[in-house]
Amino acid sequence: MTVRPLQYPNPPLADDLVQLRPWSEKDLPAIEEASRDPQVPMGTTVPEVFTPAEGRAFVHRQHSRLLKGEGVSLAVADAQTGVASGLVILRRRPQPGVGGVGYWIIPSARGRGMASRAVDLITTWGLASLDLHRVEAWVTRDNLASQGVLESAGFEREGLLRKFLILSGEPRDVYVYARLTPVLPG
Ligand SMILES: CC(C)(COP(=O)(O)OP(=O)(O)OC[C@H]1O[C@@H](n2cnc3c(N)ncnc32)[C@H](O)[C@@H]1OP(=O)(O)O)[C@@H](O)C(=O)NCCC(=O)NCCS
Questions:
Q1: Which of 3.40.630.30, 3.90.700.10, 3.30.420.10, 2.40.280.10 is the CATH number of 13-137?
Q2: Which residue from 39, 105, 168 has its CB within 8 A of the most atoms of ligand 1, so it is best to mutate?
Q3: Is 174 touching ligand 1 by the criterion CB < 6 Å?
Q4: Ligand 1: does its nearest atom lie under 6 Å from the Cβ of 77?
Q5: Cα distances (Å, whole numbers) of residue 145 to 104, 110, 116, 178
Q6: Which of 42, 48, 76, 116 to mutate to test the pocket of ligand 1 (most atoms within 8 A of CB)?
Q7: Which amino acid residue places its CA nearest to atom 5 of ligand 1?
Q8: pLDDT in tens, 99-122
Q9: What are φ and ψ of residue 165, in 5° steps?
Q10: How would you class 158 by CB atoms within 10 Å of its CB: exposed for 0-12, middle for 13-18, buried for 19 or more?
């Protein structure tokens, strides 16, 4: 299988609620708010203690994922204002043709469907425009909001991986979810 070099989506991914765009140093307020919710730094590289320098390093790490061919990390921004409220990332898993999706939304922007739309948009793009035939996600058993995101974005729960992810030093059970088709299942 030929692996194509990664590029940011062009045209950019957007709908009436969200636009997904590369991270910028203007997005430090969103990173600062994310760092204050312990759920976000626990499973990501968002700093636990925010400083402007840590915020800028976070932005540069997101761009370096593309340059290293690891994945595409995008800010989830309001479709009208362009203000960032979260992150969605599509990474290459070690298995050829398999991608993994990750996401967070800052507390003040939750409950509006932003995560579901962002996950659907990046998954559709990955399955239609990259060399992926499967996009999967891992989510802890108690993270009902994240399970809701995946179900709204057309992912199917496939099973339970026991003691699969170490979070805050503890091995945790996670559900594995996947989507195989670019068209959102009916
Ligand atoms: C999980 C998270 C991304 C959800 O973001 P969001 O933008 O509020 O999600 P959405 O508004 O798209 O909601 C998605 C679905 O989940 C449901 N949902 C949201 N919060 C919920 C909760 N606490 N319990 C149960 N269901 C919930 C919504 O009702 C919605 O379902 P619907 O489409 O049937 O109406 C956000 O809570 C977050 O960033 N959490 C911390 C980081 C995290 O857990 N990331 C995922 C790691 S796997």
A1: 3.40.630.30
A2: 105
A3: no
A4: no
A5: 11, 10, 10, 16
A6: 116
A7: 115
A8: 999 999 999 999 999 999 999 999
A9: -120, 135
A10: exposed
Domain residue extents for the chain? 13-137
89, two tokens: 């990332």
Residue 32 CA, distance from chain mean position: 18
In tens, the pLDDT along 4-37 reads: 679 999 999 999 999 999 999 999 999 999 999 9
What token pair was written down for 74? Answer: 């995008």
Please identify which residue in the block is written with the tokens 């991270």. Answer: 23
Tokens standing for residue 12: 């950019």
